[in-house]
Amino acid sequence: xxxxxxxxxxxxxxxxxxxxxxxxxxxxxxxxxxxxxxxxxxxxxxxxxxxxxxxxxxxxxxxxxxxxxxxxxxxxxxxxxxxxxxxxxxxxxxxxxxxxxxxxxxxxxxxxxxxxxxxxxxxxxxxxxxxxxxxxxxxxxxxxxxxxxxxxxxxxxxxxxxxxxxxxxxxxxxxxxxxxxxxxxxxxxxxxxxxxxxxxxxxxxxxxxxxxxxxxxxxxxx
Length: 222
What we know:
Elements: E1 2-6, H1 11-22, E2 27-31, H2 39-44, E3 52-54, E4 60-62, H3 64-74, H4 85-120, H5 127-148, H6 161-174, H7 185-195, H8 201-204
Parallel strand pairs: 1-2
Antiparallel strand pairs: 1-3, 3-4
Helix pairs in contact: 1-3, 1-6, 4-5, 4-6, 5-7
């Protein structure tokens, strides 16, 4: 069976988990404490980062987007990077938007400061970074609202890796209760649709010891 090495609140790991569930591909989920620099894990990925997908034959695939592209090739149904070249380009553009821009401006400033520093013993959270993350999230929620005014999903009429990537990041931030959904109804409606999909329910069951999520986190109706 496939094995996915992950960290629970890593949006990059969450992206792969959602895609695997959308494709109904069975896999074993294993938490990897990357800070331990375990030799066996470093043999799979010398970069020492999750996610890492290990195939039944032992082949390891690293990097969340690489894993998702790989899985979409070997299991084309449902196609999550589909359509004509312009449509696929738009999906990839939005994947990069959330994995790079959103991650840098929001995820790292909130999840990184509030959770990663706490559990990795990297000092106290930077209050200025947290304020920046709380301010920046509004810009991205507005952008989601803009995108779905003329589209059913972020990149077009079909659910795609763009939606999965955005939901992965937002679900990690929402675990902290830091997404102002009530101020962004269009983004909230989109998230409610993807949040209700069976592929997200295993993520909504995640609990970090000592850091429980807010009550609305797993509520499909908010």
